[in-house]
Amino acid sequence: MNNFFTTLTFLFITYFSFSQSYESKIDSIVSLQYSANEPGITILVAKDGKAIYKKALGKSNLELNIPIEVNSVFQIGSITKQFTAVSILMLAEQGKLNIEDKIGKYIPEYIEVGRDITIHHLLNHTSGIKNKTPLSEKNYTSRMDRSPKELITYFKDEPLAFMPGEKFKYSNAGYILLGQIIETISKQSYGQFIQENIFDKIGMTSSYCGDMKQVIPNRSTGYIIKQNEFVKSDYMNLSLAYSAGAILSTTEDLLKWQNALLQNTLLKESSIKQAMTPTLLNSGKKIPYGYGFRFSRLGNSPVVAHTGSTKGFTSIALFLPQENMYITVLTNCNCKNANNVAKQVAELFVTSPDVNKVSAVTKTIEQEKKSIAVSAEILNNYTGTYEVKPNVNLTIGLDNTNQLYLLAPGQTKKVELFVETQNHFFVKIVDAEITFNKNETNNVISLTMNQSGRKIIAKKN
């Protein structure tokens, strides 16, 4: 089913992106992957620090039939690392630590094994500390509370994977150590420090440091897909994620966070620049990570972002500095790709979007392929509904001009199909083809959709 929707996303988004306002374009991107009666999504798009689009779609809780709202609270997973990194830099600005300090100064377990590891190495994932935490173990019991010390005990005796600064390798364990450093210096719990120094200071009133026992208004339930059905995700005690991934928040609160960073509310401009700049290995090679921020490009536009994932939740916060756009997506199911949604939305605004490349390909397709005439009687044989999976059908229809079209589940926008041979059709808007399959008695029994080598077969009802 996921392949099906991914393919249809290409079909529809490319077709409608140039004819709709940005609002309806984003609506299309979201609705092609999420529906009102499934676990869903909340998305916010901001320009120059102000929200220009914010919507929610889907269910926050399937059992209680509660819809997701724009103020629904989600686990944000590893976006938490941004808060941890900024907290460390706050302490550095206060003169309470130096990012070049050896971590053994604050964590006794690492006086020896960590004698060459600095706080800088933890911040940019170059410490050599393996990404081994209780959550990395499939059979680990995740219901029990664990203190930071207990989490550290789990991996403290592991040998380093490489010498500090030699490689870049993502490590949740490294960010757990940063949380312990924050607690050691501040004499507060990690949650208390974040609450008092960040949430309260910038008005993030719907954000929390993870506690599964706490009653949190508008908290969403997490889901996964098992045997093609939605089921609740396994319980995960957020003490295990700690400073690497335990924060819950909303899209609106994350915009407050982003604005606070850019307006130097929490840190000096020099510290923010340090966090949002790619760092270097010992060799001088640049890596795509600063302090809690990842770096990439979309077309000609730089991207500063971080993704997150916990059991039943996925998230992404994406910033386009050149366009001064901020996009954040939160979902309560691991079953779909929130990152692709954010990227597709970002492509609507970047200076040189990748979709231009798609348009160039589309023009070539239109020029090379020619449609032939086929009688309405033949075309009528192809009309009907086709089952992709139980209760998920696409429709092939014929309008009053004898134009065959495809209609995706839950959509109102039709995609025209053009005849290449009697049972083989193509789409002009992207490089996609549909073949109608017949049995021995010449009856249509299914269709095969092929796009860029990816095939989807749907049985005719």
Outline of the structure:
This protein has 461 residues and is α+β, with helices and mostly antiparallel strands. It has helices at residues 2-16, 22-31, 80-93, 119-123, 148-155, 172-186, 190-202, 242-245, 251-262, 269-275, 338-347, 355-368, 376-380; strands at residues 41-47, 50-57, 59-61, 66-67, 74-75, 208-209, 223-226, 229-232, 247-249, 294-298, 301-310, 313-320, 325-331, 384-389, 392-398, 404-407, 415-416, 418-421, 424-427, 432-438, 444-451, 454-460.
Report the C-alpha radius of gyration, rounded.
Answer: 25 Å
Strand content: 15-25%
Q: How many strands in all?
A: 22
Task: Give the CATH class of the largest domain.
Answer: Alpha Beta
Q: What's the CATH superfamily of the largest domain, by name? A: DD-peptidase/beta-lactamase superfamily
Low-confidence stretches: 1-7, 9-20, 352-367
Write out the strand line-up for the largest beta sheet, numbering strands in chain order: 17-16-15-14-22-21-20-19-18
- Protein structure class: alpha+beta
Total count of helical runs of at least 4 residues = 13
Mean pLDDT: 88
N-end to C-end Cα span: 17 Å
Shape: elongated
Topology-level CATH name of the largest domain: Beta-lactamase
- The CATH architecture assignment of the largest domain turns out to be 3-Layer(aba) Sandwich
Largest sheet: 9 strands, antiparallel
Total of domains: 2
Described by its quaternary structure, the protein is single chain
How helix-rich are the residues, as a percent range?
25-40%
Domain Beta-lactamase-related: 37-337
Pfam families: Beta-lactamase, DUF3471
Protein name: CubicO group peptidase, beta-lactamase class C family
Domain Peptidase S12 Pab87-related C-terminal: 369-450
